[in-house]
Amino acid sequence: MSINHPNFGQIGANRVIMFDTTLRDGEQSPGFSMNLDEKVRMAEMLAELGVDVIEAGFPIASIGDFDSVKTIAETVKGPVIAGLARSGSADIIRAGEAVRAAERKRIHTFISTSPLHMKYKLRMEPDAVLAAVTASVTLARDFTDDVEWSAEDGSRTDADFLCRCVEAAIAAGATTINIPDTVGYAVPEDMARIFNMVRARVPGAEKAIFSTHCHNDLGLAVANTLAAVAAGARQIECTINGIGERAGNAALEEVAMAIRTRPDVAPYVHNIDTTRILRTSKLLATITGFDVQPNKAIVGRNAFAHESGIHQDGMLKNAATYEIMTPESVGWQKTSLVMGKHSGRAAFRDKLATLGYGELGDNALNDAFRRFKDLADRKKIVYDDDIVALVDDEVMRDHQRIKFVSLELWAGSKAKPRALLELDVDGTIHTAEALGDGPVDATFNAIHAIFPHTAELRLFSVGAVTEGTDAQAKCSVRLEGDGKLVDGQGADTDTIVAAARAYLHALNKLLVKRARTAPAALAS
Ligand code: KIV
Ligand code: ZN
């Protein structure tokens, strides 16, 4: 099997295309929304990671989605940029406009094909769905030669009808055929049966690349993905950290490392630079405010940690006793103890380069160095994770109208907590003092006093970046304004300062969103 694809040319028989949908299926899940700047930064990171296709969004869904797909298509070089569209012409035209400027572009159009979805969701007869398949792919081909067609709820679709739809899509010009396990219902045997069956029965199947898109409702997304590839799929749809609708999608890092680690059973080739996996995972966690669980495969804090004496003994004798891949191969550093207050700028720059921040500009570097020195003065040990949190925080500070300057607090068990806050709003320093039911409340009230606004606090959480009582706190704040939810993060050794930074981060995001959708300012 060797296919000549419009965007990839001649594709070797064992080459798998990595299609990342973090910015579409991933971003669609509650609490994971990202603004334009964050999506562009994430897309750049995905390009550096080596993904072949970035599904940048669902352009008809909102103006914000359209803008981000368009901006990514205009600015991010390397991967094919895809926009998602339902089968209606308005969706496809919008997706075509959004991806137009990309060096290499794709329209991904889909329609449900299972009896359940056709009857209750679409309220369409199978023949009408079949006609929509042909019409949607035909229209999409007017915008690009690279058209992907998906059978939504494909794994629960009648076999004969699935084959008729796939045949129609290929005949109309689809170059990729995706058969998703939309509801995460399949087991690996189902995936193997479906892909083998469709590839064997559909006339013209050899002209298309088959693709797998698995949800994780039963925790089988990665296993199902590998089963589909073994049965001939050569495109893998996946997301960083496995984020996505409900229980998420197949995790890119897990699929990529399964293929690298087990060539004996998965003899496939992908272009992922696995040493960049951890950086990409951490950037996503910083942007969304959701850390992966400690035991998450590949990118969890404990994925390469060995606590038991027996394991440590084995590791010291030969790391292969308890590690099936090296931590370095996915971007972890062997040593976690690194920098202190005596470290200079050159060492800091060097450290940043080893952590994957080699491209940081001089201003961002100077700001990050100043904050690092400040941190090193307050904290006994500065771990790599502290530096990553600090620099990511710095990078995400671009485009902020409201900046944190200083905070003083009076709190305790007797007097009502009081906060004295200084903020830089559009270049002017403002000060306010406020009381509250606790130091965080007093601080948030002081933000309100300096910058009155209508946004409402929906969630506040505190975590520790590393260990010990001198660890940096990492706070997350979710604000709602104008029907939009945004998440902000802040890190500092002082929990209340971290909370203030997180609040301002969210508020600034809301101001950016507001400015893009309506000219009025968020300030009331
Ligand atoms: O899960 C699914 O079926 C999807 C399609 C839009 C590909 O996300
Ligand atoms: Zn999906």
Structure commentary:
The protein is 40% helix and 21% strand. Mean pLDDT is 90; it is low at 515-524. It starts with a strand and ends in a 7-residue tail after the last helix. It is built from 17 helices and 18 strands. It has 3 domains: 15-288, TIM Barrel; 333-395; 402-515, Double Stranded RNA Binding Domain, CATH 3.30.160. With 524 residues, the protein is α/β, with parallel strands linked by helices. Residues 25, 180, 182, 213, 215, 245 line the site of zinc ion (ZN).
* Strand numbers in spatial order across the main sheet: 3-4-5-6-7-8-9-10
Could you name the ranges where pLDDT drops below 50 across 5 or more consecutive residues?
A: 515-524
Reported CATH architecture of the largest domain:
Alpha-Beta Barrel
Biggest sheet details: 8 strands, parallel, barrel
Query: Roughly what fraction of the amino acids lie in strands?
Result: 15-25%
Q: Strand tally, please? A: 18
Oligomer: single chain
CATH superfamily of the largest domain: Aldolase class I
| Terminal CA distance | 62 Å
List keywords for this structure.
about 525 residues, alpha/beta, TIM Barrel, Double Stranded RNA Binding Domain, 8-stranded parallel barrel, 3-stranded antiparallel beta sheet, about 20% strand, disordered C terminus, binds 3-methyl-2-oxobutanoic acid, binds zinc ion
